[in-house]
Every structure is written in structure tokens, then in C-alpha cells.
Amino acid sequence: MKIDLRYFASIREALGPGESFEAESGVLTLGVLRELLIARGGRHAEVLAHGRALRAAIDQQMVVDEATPIADGAEVAFFPPVTGG
Q1: Helix or strand or coil: residue 40?
Q2: What distance in Å separates the CA atoms of residue 20 and residue 4, rounded to the nearest whole number?
Q3: How confident is the prediction for the chain on average, in pLDDT?
Q4: Could you tell me the pTM of the whole model?
Q5: Helix and strand element counts for the chain (H, E)
Q6: In Å, how far are 2, 29, 81 from 74, measured between CA atoms?
């Protein structure tokens, strides 16, 4: 399963504009994806940590529930709760 990740604002400053992510086949949710990224350690663990306020969108639709499933080929964006622009 391949997912395109996009990062915005302070998350982009820490991790770059985005990356491709390959996950094993099966059910992948937003919460599981976040856990997998945190498990990478380093900047991913720091920026995406559970104690930090974070918003997400899947295919340009805001997501509130971390149990939301992610389909193969989806675009997932992470950004802080307030962004300027």
C-alpha cells in the first residue's frame, strides 16, 4: 500500500514538504499511520508525538477520527491546528 504524505507549516519545516510511505497491505487507519511514523524516531517522533496538537486530511478532506481508514494511493496531509498564509 502506497500513500503520499504532505506536511505543512511547522511540520513542513521539520520534515520537508512530504514523502511517499509504503505500508503492508491490510487495514491502515490515520491513527496507525501516525504510530508508524512516530516509530521511525528522530524528527518524526518529535513532530508527530501524541501530546502535540495536530490536524490531518485524507484526500483533502479534514479528518477528526484517528480510526478513519486510508485507502491505497491516498494523500494524507498533516498540519498544526492554525496555519497562516
Answers
A1: coil
A2: 5
A3: 93
A4: 0.91
A5: 3, 5
A6: 8, 11, 21
Which residues share a beta bridge with 57?
Answer: 62, 77
User: What integer pLDDT is reported at residue 84 of this predicted model?
Assistant: 59
Provide the b/e sequence for 7-35 (b: ≥16 CB within 10 Å): bbbebbeebeebeebeeeeeebebebbbe
Distance CA 71, CA 54 (A): 21
How far CA 53 is from CA of 7, 16, 26, 83, in Å, comes to: 14, 19, 27, 12
Helix (H) or strand (E) holding 72: none
The full set of domains in the chain, from first to last, is 2-79 (3.10.20.30)
